[in-house]
């Protein structure tokens, strides 16, 4: 059997999602996508909230939104979906300051869900998430260029923060350190999960392309981008897919009628038993009622057309299989 690993955009379980989940089944947040998630061999998400009931809202700098979810339901929900790795390098892991970040890490550890991108110090934040998926050794490193005030340092908790736009060597040295750590365990598949760029932007800047291609040349097998709240195009470089932005997977956000941030995909990567990517399959999804669902035919058609258009500038073309787009990565 070909190992298949799923990747999602932002999973935000706070605010109205948290409120609704207190009155419905633990796995209701996954809607009718749950069976598809559970059928995967592995699942990697960007967790866009903290898992805690403690802490106070960050007020040291202006932050308009603060996201946290009650771990009593949120952790079992992640377990029901089969989440293996949570990327934590994003602009919400300190929304309720250090206590809630520590709770999040503790709850994930207790559940056996690996995480990367945030920690008690920058040293911990740089540690890759190492998991075994279908007999593959998979490593995920996680970075963000959002919210520099949330950055960890040698003495303070926070994120693995980088500046992608400045080529002064510091960013690449920091990233290379995390990549080197991942190789210490003889990794079969190496993923870089990047929370980068501004919201509601449909195209990545040139600097992201340069950085993404550099990561591939450094040995990364897939770039798992997120942050924009809308999906962006996909580039393939040396056989590795660069998903510049996976969009949103589940949240309670207001929907832009033109950009349709409620529409997106579950990205399913097929790999060989040696860990070589062979195919990326995009299953259309949409958010409704603070839950993720299989996209309607109309929404799926819209997402396929938009993904084709946004990927065309990279020379990327897709096949079609039912409602899904298929991107072959071999030959």
UniProtKB/TrEMBL annotation:
SUPFAM superfamilies: Metallo-dependent phosphatases
Top-level taxon of origin: Archaea
Start and end residues of each Capsule synthesis protein CapA domain: 4-253
Matches recorded under Pfam families: PGA_cap
SMART domains tied to this protein: PGA_cap (SM00854)
InterPro entries the UniProt entry points to: Capsule_synth_CapA (IPR019079), CW_Biosynth-Accessory (IPR052169), Metallo-depent_PP-like (IPR029052)
Database matches in CDD domains: MPP_CapA
Family membership: Belongs to the CapA family.
Descriptive protein name: CapA family protein
Organism: Halosolutus amylolyticus
Lineage: Archaea, Methanobacteriati, Methanobacteriota, Stenosarchaea group, Halobacteria
């Amino acid at each position: 059997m070909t190992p298949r690993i799923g990747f999602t955009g932002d999973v935000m379980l706070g605010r109205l999602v948290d409120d609704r989940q207190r009155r419905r089944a633990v796995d209701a947040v996954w809607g009718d996508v749950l069976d598809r998630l559970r059928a995967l061999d592995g699942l990697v998400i960007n967790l866009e909230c903290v898992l805690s009931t403690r802490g106070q809202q960050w007020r040291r700098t202006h932050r308009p939104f603060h996201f946290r979810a009650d771990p009593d339901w949120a952790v079992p929900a992640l377990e029901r979906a089969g989440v293996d790795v949570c990327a934590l390098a994003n602009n919400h892991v300190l929304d309720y300051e250090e206590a809630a970040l520590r709770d999040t890490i503790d709850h994930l550890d207790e559940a056996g869900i690996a995480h990367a991108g945030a920690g008690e110090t920058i040293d911990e934040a740089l540690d890759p998430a190492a998991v075994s998926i279908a007999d593959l050794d998979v490593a995920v490193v996680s970075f963000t260029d959002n919210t520099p005030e949330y950055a960890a340092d040698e003495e303070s908790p926070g994120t693995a923060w980088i500046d992608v736009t400045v080529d002064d060597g510091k960013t690449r040295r920091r990233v290379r350190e995390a990549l080197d750590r991942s190789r210490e365990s003889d990794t079969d598949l190496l993923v870089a999960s990047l929370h980068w760029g501004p919201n509601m932007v449909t195209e990545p800047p040139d600097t992201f392309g340069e950085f993404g291609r550099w990561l591939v040349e450094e040995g990364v097998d897939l770039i798992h981008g997120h942050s924009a709240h809308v999906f962006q195009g996909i580039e393939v470089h040396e056989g590795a897919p660069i998903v510049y932005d996976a969009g949103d997977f589940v949240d309670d956000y207001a929907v832009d009628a033109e950009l349709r941030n409620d529409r997106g995909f579950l990205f399913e990567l097929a790999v060989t038993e040696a860990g070589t990517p062979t195919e990326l399959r995009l299953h259309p999804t949409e958010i409704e009622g603070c839950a993720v669902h299989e996209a309607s035919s109309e929404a799926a058609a819209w997402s396929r057309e938009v993904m084709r258009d946004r990927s065309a500038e990279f020379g990327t073309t897709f096949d079609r299989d039912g409602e899904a787009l298929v991107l072959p990565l071999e030959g």
